[in-house]
User: Fold this.
Amino acid sequence: MDIAVVTGASSGLGEEYVKYIAKFYPELDEIWIIARRKERLDQLAQKITQVKCRSVVCDITNDEDIAKYQDLLTLNDVNVKILINNAGFGKLGFFDEIETGANAAMVRLNCEAVSVVTNVTLPFMKEKSFILNVCSIASFVPNARMTVYSATKAFIKSFSRALREELKRKKINVCAVCPGPMDTEFLSIADIPPGASKTFDMLPHIKPDMVARNSLKAAAKGRGIYTPHFFFKFYRVLAKIIPHSIMMKLSAT
Assistant:
């Protein structure tokens, strides 16, 4: 059975990925949509008509839930054509003023869970499949007041690039998608309402549907990184040539 797997599928960018996978790959047998909110998953599944969606209620930071997910992969004898690691969250604020639990949860979800889900899923992937890891422009330069979040996204970018090199022998591509701010639940969960950060207010906001559509195309073509919008592409280049000590001041949140 040929499937796609999307984590963090219950809203925002994850939901857009499910919609575009169904549009671009109607030959798939199923799309497995993973999140903790069953009601939201079921609502999304009802919207998708091109491909059957299977709601997989799973906390990917929970070992027991991951074991159940692994069992599902085995029992259904699947071939995972697409894996999208989209689940993640951030918090705006000074490191020492954010709760310890929130900082730890960011690392568990944004880093550990991505590694675990990928590790569990890879044995069920064959050549010409691809993995898309949702990263961020925050991975380009360390961001004060988003210290842990930007560090986790730097991990994802590095993880994606190294894994891509490893998996070339299996002809499996890995692509890190690095968008800027998007008008999704991320901003409210991250405590970034309008006015909370001049940088976030100033930056161009990217449409999630455009990110999903174009990053899927980029991953399918074998690209290793995708950054939408000329402004953020230029920022990525600057981050490579200007010392981070300077860039951190220019990009302060």
About this structure: DSSP finds ten helices and seven strands in the chain. Residues 2-250 form a domain with the Rossmann fold fold (CATH 3.40.50.720). The chain has a mean pLDDT of 93.
